[in-house]
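FAQ: What does the model actually see?

It sees only this:
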Amino acid sequence: MQNIELAKAYFESVLDKPLSQMQYVQLGGMRVIEILWPVNDIFRLRLYEIRGIPYSKYRGREADAAIEAFSAKPLAQTWEDLEPTVWRVLLERHHQMLMVAATNEVQGFPLTSVPDDLPESAVLPAVMLLLLHGMQLPWPPGNRSELELPAEDGPETMLHR
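And it is asked to produce this:
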């Protein structure tokens, strides 16, 4: 199932109403960064284990399955048994989506949309289904062996430094 179809099914499940009754709100790049930022904490626990692993596009389906599992149970523990190579695919998608979001923010383009009454606890899984599931990387995978994750404070505080 494609990411849009998965997201639609997720919206209907969470909101318990058909898509035709939903109003949507657009999410700009900065809002997407704010939503995805907490995933850095999940990667922080595994970063030194996975950052030097080469990216493998052949692990994409397993990464998609991990995103689907996370949408059902959005906790760090959901991913604890993933193979390091799957973690690496998820890290690359996450990193590149943050760059895409920043680029869209600068250009003033919205990145995606979600139902306006989606509970806050469902927004991260929804954005992951919409943007990270099945993601085709816009750039070649980077060498992440020297990657350091940002400080624990989020993007909203980075703007005020």
